[in-house]
Amino acid sequence: MNFSGDHTRAEKLLLEASRIFNSTLEYEELIERVLRLIITAAGSEAALVFRVDHERTDMKVRFMNSSDFEMKQFYLEVGSGVVGWVTKYREPVIIEDAGSDPRVDHEIGALGGIKINSMISLPLIGKGQMIGVIEAINKIEGKFDSADMDVLIGLANQIAVAIDNAHLYRMVRREALQKDLLLQIVQQLSSSLQLDEVLRLIIESLGKAVEFDAGGVFLIDSKSGDIESLDTHGYSETSEKKMHIKVGQGLVGTVAKSGETVIVPDVSVDDRYVNARDETKSELVVPIILENRPIGAINLESNKPAAFDKEQAALVSAFASQAAVSVERARMHERMISANKLEEQLHIAREIQRTFLPRRNPSLPGYEMCGTNIPSFEVGGDYYDFINIVESQTGIAIGDVSGKGIPASLIMASFRASLIAEIRNNYSIRTICRKVNNLLCESVKPGNFVTAVYGVLDSKNHVFTFSNCGHTLPILLRANREVEYLREGGPLLGVTPGAEYEERPVYINKDDLIFFYTDGISEVFDSDEKELGLDRLTDILRENREKPAPDILDAVYRAVAKFAAPDHVYDDLTMILVKRTS
Fold first, then answer.
1. Whole-number pLDDT of residue 432
2. Rounded Cα distance, 571 and 393, in Å
3. Which of 155, 395, 473, 493 could lock 485 by a disulfide, CB 3.0 to 4.6 Å apart?
């Protein structure tokens, strides 16, 4: 009879668990319901849940006392207590006398307002992986026994699945929110040149995705070397006076000097922290980088310890990329206003374009790689870049923005910022192109667009994987003089929301070369109005293929200049050459 009763009770609990877990995907709400279910199932005074998070340097546990059913959060050292023991050994355990067991961390009881006498602790296993621990603390009537263990083991499988699903849902929703926020920033950058307005939006938008109690955008004053607060939130007037520091001082000054993100779980043990708020417990500082040099930082502070993780740091870094564009553009705009001359406007727009071009060609074993941009008199929107991703993986990008002048250069700046931000978050080339396209569709006006080719060269395995987004066809000239044109990809960027892109890998043999270019190279006309075209361009490459890469680009330029009619109006001429030498 007892066994039958226990069996009926277990079945009822499993049914109740199924109902509870299917009723919500909200993570915090689910954890609260899990804690209540554990207390009910085990007849315990309290319960605890811990989910393994490999991004954290501590253990974040959630605790509930049956006296008030209020969920609390504690932060423990990794591996401490019975939670740490079960996480390590993946074995359930019943502890009848907590006072004599050295594994018990009585700090948990103190934080939860109870004295720990006994407990039952079980691992949560999902898809063969250790994902967390559940605990029932202090049996109210009698002692924990095998029947309690059986009931909790039955529930543990459902709990593991529910927590995994809720966590996945939270991540997907957070990613969608982050994408929407980035779109807002890009839209604002495209419509405003007022620095204060743009930076205020960045701080406000960050608050929707990252929880913080105080924050600000800080820039280096190039003349004084001081760091000035540009836009802040959550600081008192007295606190802001403490923020005028030199580069290298404090956490903000350290990041502004090094260009490296800093996550501080506990500011009280970091001697770099400048106490501008007594309430601050943890801090995140992300550099604002332009042309590979830090020009400032975004600083976020929280009243909670260990409030920031690597995922949040990556999101803030994406915002910082947009901030760098806005800062540079706004400063240039101020100079344009003061100059009030068309020549000055063209110069500034050219500077915007120049700052986003590589300063030097990359040096890769077994390869020659170089690029060049020869500007026309009128500012265009050509762009090329070499992006160091990881060891032996180099991103190669070339793009051409529709139109001329300052609008084209600003669209190019937004395109580059979006591309760099997506490269940091994704390895799939087709995904990067799709997301950049959606960002541009939201931010540019109808009629504007970008053509581009983006690919990654694996110089170790000699594979180039690319996607062509409506751009002029790169020429792959094989060592045996055969030619392939790199067509695969998708439509123009910024025109068709939701467009899909394909990617294609090609193997690079010794002495093969790939030539990338914008239409200023191929769409040149002679005195008879004949176009240079793809065939003539390919012949020029064949004739000069034995030369070093820089000399090949020079030969192409001289051939184009010789072919063009005397009155031809040049567009920007942008070229990249990749040649495998060994």
1. 95
2. 31
3. 473
Express each pLDDT in 458-498 by its tens digit.
999 999 999 999 999 999 999 999 999 999 999 999 999 99
d(CA 381, CA 350): 9
Contact 101, 131 (CB under 8 A): no
Rounded to 10 deg, the angle between the 405-425 and 342-355 helix axes is 20
489 or 148, which is more confident: 489
Domain limits of the chain? 2-170, 192-328, 357-580
Tokens for 319, please give them.
Answer: 């915002």
In sequence order, which residues have a C-beta less than 8 Å from that of residue 19 and are 6 or more positions away? none
pLDDT at 166 over 70: yes
Q: Do the domains at 2-170 and 192-328 have one common CATH topology?
A: yes
- Give the pLDDT band of residue 548 (cuts 50, 70, 90): very high
CA–chain centroid gap for 457, Å, is: 21
Q: Three-class SS of residue 52?
A: coil
Q: How far is CA 582 from the centre of its chain?
A: 35
Rounded Cα–Cα distance for residues 279 and 301 (Å): 9
Kindly calculate the radius of gyration of the chain based on its CA atoms and give it in whole angstroms.
30
CATH 3.40.50.2300 fits 2-170, yes or no: no
Residue with tokens 């934080």: 111
Instruction: Quickly state the pLDDT bin for 210 (edges 50, 70, 90).
Output: confident
- From the options 3.40.50.20, 1.10.287.1700, 1.10.8.60, 3.60.40.10, give the CATH code of 357-580: 3.60.40.10
Under 8 Å CB-to-CB from 146, ≥6 apart: which residues?
A: none
> Which residues on neighbouring strands pair with residue 233, listed in sequence order?
215
Between 449 and 342, the higher pLDDT residue = 449
* Alpha helices for 90-194 (secondary structure H): 106-112, 146-191
What CATH architecture is 192-328?
2-Layer Sandwich (3.30)
